[in-house]
UniProtKB/TrEMBL annotation:
InterPro entries: HGF/MST1, Kringle, Kringle-like, Kringle_CS, Kringle_sf, Pan_app, Peptidase_S1_PA, Peptidase_S1_PA_chymotrypsin. It is found in: Secreted. Its main location: secreted. This is HGFL protein. One of its GO terms (molecular function) is serine-type endopeptidase activity. One of its GO terms (cellular component) is extracellular space. Residues 79-157, 161-239 form the Kringle domain.
Amino acid sequence: LRATELLAVPVDSPPALPEQGTAEQCAQRCATSLACRAFHHDQQSQLCQLLPWTQHSPRIQLQKNIRYDLYQKKDYLRDCIVGDGSGYRGTRATTEKGLRCQHWQATTPHDHSRFLPSPRNGLEENYCRNPDRDKRGPWCYTVDPNVRHQSCGIKKCEDAVCMTCNGEDYRGTVDHTESGTECQRWDLQHPHKHPYHPNKYPDKGLDDNYCRNPDSSERPWCYTTDPEREREYCHIRICKKRPRPVNVTNGCFRGKGEGYRGRVNGTLATHRVVLVPSGWLDPVPLLPSVFSLQLAAQCPPSWRIQVMAHGSWVGTLEWVLVVQPQLMPTLPTDTVTFEQCGQREERLQQKGRIVGGQPGNSPWTVSIRNRAGVHFCGGSLVKEQWVISTRQCFFSCDADLTGYEVQLGTLFKDPGPGDPDQQTIPIVRIVCGPSESQLVMLKLARPAALTRRVALICLPPERYVVPAGTVCEIAGWGETRGTADGSVLNVARLPVLAHSECDRALRGRLKESELCTAPLRAGVGACEGDYGGPLACLTADCWVLEGVITPSRVCARTDLPALFIRVSLYVDWIYKVMKMG
């Protein structure tokens, strides 16, 4: 987990003192230590600290900290098993029939002496384990006097998430090959060198050492940790029901053309038909053709059809038909309308910062709190029972959020019991968005009551682009670095930067899914605790959620643009999630 640390509340046994080393060296130390279950790594100082707990340990909480990256042993985090599950160290404590497990050190109601807790066997509390390598997987003694022991029925990781087609979209957590060999991490170049680095292919889901299919192979695979075997396929279950095709078209195609069902069976003479992504360089003069005119008559007006020419060899001229959808058209603000959202009691505008900010008014900004009731991230209320935040605030899409809640309707980070507008609602479900979006939607246990302090923020039109220079707001209860009152909601105003200008500032690394605001000399920006909160822009007299705050290593930089998730690219997915409930 990037920019994250684990805190023990209270500290029962302090962790080891920090030692010098790279992240890989720290991982090797932790792997050989029975007491180590996780470690912090400080990239700047190259120090690491071994930890005897994980985020699932009692009285432990996650907290954003830009100094540290957090690494945890996967055996303690998995809710599925690898092989026979003898390495499972999760916290399941009920059997497949729903019986509660007996503590391993207890001798009632079932007396046993064969399996007693030790640092090596992982027999902790009353958690399901497999100390005898039972082929049915982890089990436990039960508290039912009539049932001595029973299997816990924990799924195998290879069956937990299925794949469709060749598994290019598979994002499960299988990390062993068919032969049982552990996979090599995608961000490492040994024992096998390879071209598939996560930073080069951010849309391929190359997380950790999980099986993936970045090269359109037959099925997901990985590089292995065995120097003698470079790569192997992984065993992943195929989904029984294949998804229905979407966006079926006949006269033209959308996206990559997966839904195209037309009858075109050839190109224009010897010409190629290609789809050009957004950001195409200045086109050559348009060359008319009958075929392009037919496509133009059948495709939406927002699509651009061009026939372009270039010489592929000396003395020849190759024609290229370019069908380029205008991926992010800028809609005139007078064509955008909203209903029943984005309204608030306006106050006098104050120049403010979250780092160095002023108290603000953002009735759609919510505080997300962990089991200890501590604020750790922000979010935006887009429907009475739905909040949008960022995936970086949560360990996984299957995270157990029991005890987590959102707080609404108050300006205070820790309001007193007499706050009349405060609402606290449990979170019952987390839904992760498309892998490149880094968005999550949180379903609340009940609808929020809309008041003068609690309001919905509007969603933008699909693929809407905020005009450059628009002054938008960020809000949150995050770190202020001593420059403002950190106990209240702070608001900052930031101007939107043109996509092309931001891309130049970031040396071509800007993604289509990202939105930028210009850096300000005063050091205005988001920090730890603000992540997941809104970038709200005023459009047609309503406040619209145009961006979501994402983690960064440095708060409020004065030399580089601030990045946000561009919400308008994902509104179709957002509406579908809310509709399906």
